[in-house]
Specification:
eight-stranded mixed β-sheet; alpha/beta; globular; Rossmann fold
């Protein structure tokens, strides 16, 4: 099992193919396992998938479950793998980690950025119209994480997919419940209260924003906000997808990603 030791954690990763390095970052409580439909892209690019600490097949460390630490882990991983000029693909929390990375380290390592289904802030604020839950709802999620992790998993899954078979939902459930409740509480809270509105305009590399239009987990306007406020962004809409267009409409997603890399990166 390939791992890289970074900042006191063993991170699981896979790498396949040659060409422009494309690094995939998964969502909160998920794993790199969900990017299997993108493996065909390894014919033209080097595909690298990575599990954050505490997630998937990476080490379940007791500490370090914040977006700033995940960004530092990413920098250490890229350095250890001698990767530069990468196209970073961030799905959901993966985009938040990418913005946190930009806040700490800038964009020198990036050839391009792909933000999949994420807005810069999830929590409702008076000066932000795209929040998806208030503090009371977040407190309820924190309670579920400690009292009924299985119910929390299914509540998240219900909002993620439009119409996928039971086996896909079961895979999501298996990955979510692989994360220990203590880690779930820590990272779910941290990623939910971070605000990257000031960082989004600092992403000065070509950017592709992917929006699943049949979305219930986020607000479409929040994803459009990213496209509108990133200097070199274009948006790709997936009419039959919810939160996982790379899984729900993989052919369109792969074509959009490959075309973006070829044309703009």
């Amino acid at each position: 099992m390939p791992t890289e030791s970074v900042n006191g954690a063993e991170l699981y990763y896979e790498s396949d193919g040659d060409g422009v390095p494309v690094v995939f970052l998964h969502g909160v409580l998920m794993s790199s396992r969900f990017f299997s439909e993108q493996q065909s892209l390894s014919d033209d690019h080097q595909l690298i998938t990575l599990d954050f600490r505490g997630h998937g097949r990476s080490e379940k460390t007791e500490t370090g479950h914040t977006l700033p630490q995940y960004a530092r882990d990413l920098e250490a991983f890229l350095d250890a793998q001698d990767l530069s000029d990468v196209v970073l693909v961030g799905w959901s929390m993966g985009s938040l980690v990418a913005w946190e990375y930009v806040r700490q380290f800038g964009t020198d390592r990036f050839r391009g950025f792909v933000s999949v289904e994420q807005q810069p802030l999830d929590l409702e604020q008076e000066d932000y119209e795209h929040g998806v839950f208030g503090f009371g709802e977040l407190r309820g999620l924190m309670e579920l994480a400690q009292t009924n992790p299985h119910e929390l998993a299914w509540s998240l899954i219900d909002e993620m997919l439009v119409d996928e078979p039971d086996c896909v939902e079961q895979t999501l459930f298996d990955e979510i419940t692989r994360v220990p409740p203590s880690i779930t509480s820590a990272i779910l809270f941290d990623q939910s209260v971070r605000d990257y509105r000031e960082v989004v305009p600092d992403v000065d590399v070509p950017t592709l924003v992917c929006l699943g239009e049949d979305e219930t987990m986020l607000e479409n306007g929040g994803v459009e906000y990213v496209a509108d406020n990133t200097p070199k962004a274009q948006i790709e809409r997936f009419s039959d997808s919810g939160h996982c267009p790379f899984l729900e409409e993989p052919e369109q997603f792969n074509h959009a990603l490959s075309s973006f890399i070829t044309a703009r990166c």
